[in-house]
Amino acid sequence: MTTTLTAGPAGATRAATLLRSGELVALPTETVYGLAADALSVEACEKIFAVKARPLIDPLIVHVLGLPDIEKLCSDIPTEAAALAKAFWPGPLTLVLPKRSNVPDLVTAGKPSVAVRCPAHPVFREVLAAFGGPLAAPSANPFGYISPTNAEHVLDSLGGRLPAVLDGGPCTHGLESTILSLLERGRPVMLRPGPIGQAELSSVLGIPVSAPKPHSENPISDSQDESTGELAPGMLARHYSPRTPVVLFGGQNEPRPMLYPSPADAWLWQARPTEAALAELVGDHFWLSEDGDAASCARNLFALLRKLDARQPSRILAQVRPQGTGGLDAAINDRLRRAAAR
Ligand code: TXA
Ligand code: MG
User: Which of 85, 139, 190, 250 has its CA at a distance of 20 to 30 angstroms from the CA of residue 183?
Assistant: First the structure.
């Protein structure tokens, strides 16, 4: 039985008490809901891997209240980290830095680095303050499935497997944080696109930020960056995936769908399609926003994918975004490509 806790001082206190006793609590962040545990307790973090059926090679993100807190977790904090924290924390940016020995190897999947993030959501911050230490939290979904962007999503896929979810309403961004590795001096590498884009990061750092590698069809080679030897299982080709097959359309060279649609298909559009398209294309039609605004599309993406998956159409025909300049365009397309990968 999973209890839904209401946001507020009583909910935060109850969540902190559970976390202190080594239990898991699902918490809202501004990106997606996280499955939180005491980051310095191996026993508590083991429960995260068990509940999510997450492979032990996939490291967790450690959440803190602010920059000073990462001194206890990271052995070397380059000036770049401080500059980025000043610009984007609290917010949807995760930094990968060399770890200290007190961070359990389980949390970092045996790597010498740790991913740290300072969430902006007031409810998550209230729990961090009440708990008084760092919290490990991956997205609160079964491994490989669509991340949760409200408390109901958590209950739908993990209900009964953890004592409590703290309901903080729907998430603002709706996509997981941008992950940036600062392990190599002068060579920042984006490991996962997210709400904060490559251009924004580069402009704060004053140097170029390498883009994430486009995923290949091979999840094994994809999960290893050959140049750094860095494992990033969140970079697996197939991830964030509904059970229903997803087929993409609307890439640069394909302005018109060429999908031989059937009435059993569900269409996922970025913006409301034209009346002509609706009249011409069989199947059920859904759109992420009226006008294609990137922030609205990102916020609604995972909820709509879950909704369509539950309807059990024969396929989800999903429109990718034209390559825009914003970080969200790249992040939305990244999640859609992974959802479509087989
Ligand atoms: O927005 C978010 O980041 C959400 C919320 C809950 O904070 N969390 C999240 O966690 O998306 P998760 O576990 O779903 O994704 C964590 C990913 C891993 O799959 C891996 O790719 C990367 O973070 N990661 C963690 N530690 C790392 C490390 N030491 N080196 C490289 N990548 C790391
Ligand atoms: Mg995840």
Answer: 139
pLDDT at position 277: 87
Pocket of ligand 1 (CB under 6 A): 29, 31-32, 34, 58-61, 92, 94, 96, 108, 111, 113-115, 117, 137-139, 176-177, 179, 191, 230, 232-235
Give the ligand with the smallest distance to the CA of 58: 1
Ligand 1 pocket test, pick from 61, 116, 146, 183 with the greatest ligand atom count within 8 Å of Cβ, gives 61
State the DSSP string of 121-138: -HHHHHHHHHHTS-EE--
Residue showing tokens 């030897």: 229
Structure confidence by residue, pLDDT tens digits, 90-141? 999 999 999 999 999 999 999 999 999 999 999 999 999 999 999 999 999 9
42 token code pair? 């191996």
CA of 255 to the centre of ligand 2 (A): 31
Ligand 2 midpoint to CA 8 (Å): 26
- pLDDT tens profile 56-94: 999 999 999 999 999 999 999 999 999 999 999 999 999
Q: Specify the DSSP class assigned to residue 66.
A: S
pLDDT tens sequence across 155-190:
999 999 999 999 999 999 999 999 999 999 999 999
Looking at this protein, which amino acid is placed at residue 112?
P
Q: How far is the CA of 144 from the centre of ligand 2 (A)?
A: 7
Q: What is the CA radius of gyration of the chain?
A: 20
Atom of ligand 1 nearest to the CA of 108: 29
Residue 109 to residues 58, 105, 144, 240, 282, Cα–Cα distance (Å): 6, 6, 17, 20, 47
Looking at residue 225, the DSSP 8-state letter turns out to be: E
Helix, strand, coil tally for the chain in percent (to 5): 30, 20, 50
Whose atoms come closest to the Cα of 235: which ligand?
1
Going from the C-alpha of 100 to that of each of 22, 75, 185, 263, the distances in angstroms are 22, 5, 18, 56
146 Cα: distance to centroid of ligand 2 (angstroms): 8
